[in-house]
C-alpha cells in the first residue's frame, strides 16, 4: 500500500490525523463527506493506495473507486432528494484539483444550481456532516 506524502490532506484523513465524516469504507477505499460541499451530500471517494490523480493511479484503484461510486450514487440521491449527480475527477491545478490525491466527487445536482471546481462551498459543521452521513449510510 503506497502512503501519501506526510503533508497530504487526504493522507492525513486516512490516518485519522484530521477529522472526516465517513460514509462508507472497506479495505480498498474510504468515502467521506466534502467539508466544503458544492451541494449538501457532496461525497468523496478515495483509494487507500496513494496516487496523485486518475492517470498516475493503478488501474485497479480507479476501477475499485468507480465500483464504489456506482454503489453510492443511489444512496446519495435518496438521502438528498437529488434527481441527478455529477461524478468528477479533477486532474491538475488548471482543472481545479486542489488536493493531489486521486478522488472522485459525487455531487448531488438540482435544477438551476451551479457548481464550481475553483471555489469551496460553505464549510459544514460537524453536526451537519454527521446528519448527512447518517442519511446516506441508511440508504446503503
Ligand atoms: P479537488 O478540488 O478536485 O482537488 O477537490 C478537493 C475537495 O476536497 C474539495 O471539494 C474540497 O472542498 C475538499 N476538501 C478539502 N479539505 C477537506 C477536508 N478536510 N475534509 C473534507 N473535504 C475536504
Concise overview:
The protein has helices spanning 9-15, 59-80, 126-139; strands at residues 22-25, 29-33, 43-47, 84-88, 104-109.
Characterization of the model:
The protein is of the alpha+beta class. The chain has one domain: HIT family, subunit A. It is built from three helices and five strands; from the N terminus they run αβββαββα. A five-stranded antiparallel sheet has the order 1-2-3-5-4. A hairpin with a 3-residue loop joins β1 (22-25) and β2. α2 crosses α3. The chain is globular. The structure holds adenosine monophosphate. Residues 9, 18, 20, 34-36, 90, 96-99, 117, 120 line the site of adenosine monophosphate.
Topology:
Elements: H1 9-15, E1 22-25, E2 29-33, E3 43-47, H2 59-80, E4 84-88, E5 104-109, H3 126-139
Bound molecules: adenosine monophosphate.
Low confidence ranges? none
Kindly state the percentage of residues in helix.
25-40%
Strand residue percentage:
15-25%
* CATH superfamily caption: HIT-like
CATH class: Alpha Beta
Helices and strands, in order, run as HEEEHEEH
Question: SS-based structural class?
Answer: alpha+beta
How confident is the prediction overall: mean pLDDT?
97
Coarse morphology:
globular
Q: How many helices does DSSP assign?
A: 3
Which fold name corresponds to the CATH topology?
HIT family, subunit A
Total strands: 5
Spatial strand sequence of the major β-sheet = 1-2-3-5-4
**What is the second-level CATH architecture?**
2-Layer Sandwich
The radius of gyration computed from the alpha-carbon positions, rounded to a whole number of angstroms, is 14 Å
- Please summarize the sheet with the most strands: 5 strands, antiparallel
The separation of the N and C termini measures: 27 Å
| Count of domains | 1
